[in-house]
């Protein structure tokens, strides 16, 4: 794309220079009686202003050709250099605005820049994910870049976080209206794994979610809305998860007043910064928990990895579609069987992660579904995360 833009910007002055050079070389050959090779040599020496003095014009016509060639070439070369400089500046601006797009695969789309989006980005970076961010306001671009740079630099100072935190090149930032398909394609929508819609406009959130499900039906979409009544509408449209930050915040405030330790624990569990938290592992072979009852699975998991089994997630029969969602059950009856296709919900310490991953034999989190933009097996969402954390 940049090469094409460069050629489109400079082909005219290059063609003019070539035309003048050709005419003058022919003029040298005809007026001085030199060979075509000597004429080309004479033209190059004139254009380069070297002036060896071994070949010089000896008649008025030859001198006129030399004057035309030298004068026009200097002017056109100046224009050519100016065009190249302008193109370089424009290319840099397009890169800063993200207008050249990204080739990320298995990444998360983060649409909108709000307090909710900022908190989500922090957790995604701690999980080692690739993130493509789009905002509609240009003044937010510098703020986001500064936030990412400072957060990653701070995270790398912690030995436990440094091994799995995202790299600077794992974040792509673009300016655009994410309620339009053309803008979403800059984020390589066809190869994305999940999308988080978190603007401060519920109407735009709903419109964006509907557009995402239309353009990428298999994409997992999470939407943050201000109005709780929109939850059913979005669920009916196939959105994987809908959350109302205001309602969640209100429940946390009430819990902090009544049971402050519970509120503090929940707050700690929702971030990876404290080196322990909740994780979900797929119940599929070779996971040794598959087929065990909850009581037996809890005991074996605790003895082998130090983690605590707190619940299971089972497919939600009330939801349909490409990604029907799951229903979490905390502290189920002891005889509840951990059947394939669900997830085991764990409370675990980050320091024990290598031992836990080795014993369970499967990576945590939801797998990335194959997308229409590529064939074959998909890249796991936590590929870099797992390799960095494995022993």
Q: How many strands?
A: 10
Please indicate the count of domains: 3
Estimated radius of gyration = 31 Å
Regarding quaternary structure, how should these chains be classified?
single chain
Shape: elongated
- Helix content estimate: 40-55%
| Fourth-tier CATH superfamily name of the largest domain | NAD(P)-binding Rossmann-like Domain
Order of helices and strands: HHHEHEHHEHEHEHEHHEHEEEHH
What is the CATH topology assignment of the largest domain?
Rossmann fold
Count of helix runs: 14
Secondary structure class reads alpha/beta
Summarize the structure.
The chain is of the alpha/beta class. 49% of the residues lie in helices and 14% in strands.
Task: Describe the 3D structure.
With 391 residues, the protein is α/β, with parallel strands linked by helices. Helix 4 links the parallel strand 1 (108-111) and strand 2 (131-135). It folds into 3 domains: 2-97, Helix Hairpins; 108-243, NAD(P)-binding Rossmann-like Domain (Rossmann fold), CATH 3.40.50; 275-360, Regulator of K+ conductance, C-terminal domain (Alpha-Beta Plaits), CATH 3.30.70. The protein contains 14 helices and 10 strands. Helix 1 crosses helix 2, helix 2 (36-48) crosses helix 3 and helix 10 (245-258) packs across helix 11. It has helices spanning 2-32, 36-48, 60-97, 115-126, 139-155, 159-162, 181-185, 202-215, 231-236, 245-258, 260-269, 294-305, 353-360, 383-389, and strands spanning 108-111, 131-135, 171-175, 194-197, 220-224, 241-243, 276-282, 308-315, 326-330, 343-349. The two termini are 42 Å apart. It has a 6-stranded parallel β-sheet with strand order 3-2-1-4-5-6, with helices on both faces. A 4-stranded antiparallel β-sheet has the order 7-10-8-9, with helices on one face.
């Amino acid at each position: 794309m940049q090469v094409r833009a460069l050629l489109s910007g400079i082909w005219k002055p290059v063609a003019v220079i070539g035309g003048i050079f050709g005419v003058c070389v022919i003029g040298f050959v005809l007026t001085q009686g030199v060979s075509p090779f000597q004429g080309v040599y004479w033209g190059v020496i004139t254009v380069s202003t070297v002036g060896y003095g071994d070949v010089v014009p000896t008649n008025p016509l030859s001198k006129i050709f030399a004057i035309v060639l030298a004068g026009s070439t200097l002017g056109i070369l100046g224009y050519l250099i100016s065009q190249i400089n302008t193109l370089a500046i424009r290319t840099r601006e397009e890169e800063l605005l993200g207008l050249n797009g990204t080739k990320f695969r298995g990444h998360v789309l983060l649409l909108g820049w709000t307090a909710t989006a900022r908190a989500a980005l922090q957790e995604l970076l701690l999980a080692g994910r690739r993130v493509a961010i789009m905002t509609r306001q240009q003044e937010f671009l510098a703020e986001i870049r500064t936030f990412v740079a400072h957060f990653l630099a701070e995270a790398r100072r912690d030995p436990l976080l440094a091994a799995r935190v995202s790299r600077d090149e794992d974040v792509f930032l673009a300016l655009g209206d994410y309620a339009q398909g053309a803008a979403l394609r800059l984020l390589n929508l066809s190869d994305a794994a999940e999308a988080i819609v978190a603007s401060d406009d519920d109407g735009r959130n709903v419109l964006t979610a509907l557009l995402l499900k239309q353009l990428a039906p298999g994409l997992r979409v999470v939407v943050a809305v201000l109005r709780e009544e929109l939850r059913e509408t979005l669920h009916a449209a196939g959105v994987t998860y809908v959350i109302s930050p205001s309602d969640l915040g209100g429940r946390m405030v009430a819990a902090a007043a009544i049971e402050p330790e519970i509120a503090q624990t929940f707050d700690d569990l929702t971030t990876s910064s404290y080196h322990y938290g909740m994780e979900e592992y797929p119940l599929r072979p070779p996971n040794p928990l598959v087929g065990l009852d909850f009581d037996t699975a809890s005991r074996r998991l605790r003895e082998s990895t130090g983690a605590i089994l707190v619940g299971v997630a089972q497919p939600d029969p009330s939801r349909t579609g490409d990604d029907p969602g799951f229903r979490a059950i905390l502290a189920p009856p002891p005889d509840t069987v951990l059947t394939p296709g669900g997830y085991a919900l764990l409370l675990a310490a980050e320091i024990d992660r290598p031992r836990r991953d080795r014993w369970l034999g499967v990576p945590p989190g939801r797998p990335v579904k194959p997308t229409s933009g590529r064939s074959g097996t998909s890249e796991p969402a936590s590929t870099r995360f797992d390799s960095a954390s494995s022993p």
